[in-house]
Amino acid sequence: ADVMEVDLHQLIQDEFSGLDVLVCANLPYYITSPVIMKLLEEKLPVESLTVMVQKEAAVRICAASGTRACGAVSVAVQYYSQPQILFDVPRDCFFPAPNVDSAVIRLNIRKEPPVKLETEEKQFFKLVKAAFGQRRKTVLNSLNTGLGKSKEELSAALQQAGIEPTARAEQLTMEQFGTLCNLLFPNKAK
Question: What are the C-alpha distances in Å from 130 to residues 5, 59, 122, 138, 184?
Answer without folding.
Answer: 27, 21, 12, 11, 13
